[in-house]
Write the structure tokens for this entry.
Amino acid sequence: MQPIIQVQDLSKTYDSGFTALHEVNLEIQRGEIFALLGPNGAGKTTLISIVCGIVNPTQGTVSADGHDIVTAYRAARSKIGLVPQELSTDAFESVWATVSFSRGLFGKAPDPGYIEQLLRQLSLWDKRDAKIRELSGGMKRRVMIAKALSHQPDILFLDEPTAGVDVELRRDMWEMVRELRERGVTIILTTHYIEEAEEMADRIGVINKGQLILVEEKDALMAKLGEKQLNIHLQSPLTELPTGLNGFRLELAEEGQLLIYSYDSQQLGGIASLLKSLNELGLEVKDLHSSESSLEDIFVNLVRGA
């Protein structure tokens, strides 16, 4: 099956000489949730803006559902909904009018039933006649989402969609994301809340300094790069690690009463060997506790190493 979004050799250099993107290649599959992670200034918003036709690329090509975003702009853009970081809408229009107008911009026939369903789903129905300027920041964010979905796009970009919003909206939004994915909509999101990407995404992309440094299925990424730790609490403290434990990645902590053993998912057999060595050295274990790296830990380590 052809990817719904194809990015090939994409670069963007601004007139100032700053290169925001450098030879990015990316394919996004139809119906997946793809999370794009990166620190501030990494190029996330620039990449989204190019795909959505807001910023022109310096070189490279991008297609949305088979339509080139430059040579077939209207066809490509009609496939895409965008919820930008910044709140930007007509302050003096009503919620109903601004969402309906957004649908019309994409050449879609009026569909009051769909607009009503959308506003109800986003808890905006009671505010349908309110002016945008009368709404709270969270409600304005809901309107931006409604506008992005007004023309029933096949691709939805969410650029930091939950930044500065309340817990209720965040929960409602992710419920809607799941429902959209079930209907076949492809979701691409950027977020600073890495736990959201860990919970929601099928695949993860990490971008840093304008370069895409990794694209991986979330579960495979966690298995490959997620480091596990076994905390071993000892009955009696150690002043130093015995030479018999030199073959293990161990750290002595808590004034010698804690051994921290670091290992990856391919080294599960090392735990048995370690416990056997502890027993042979006469070291009594009081308690064991295991943990593993979160996606945030992995992300921080990737960016540091880039």
About this structure: The longest strand covers residues 19-28. The mean pLDDT is 85. The first helix runs from residue 44 to 51.
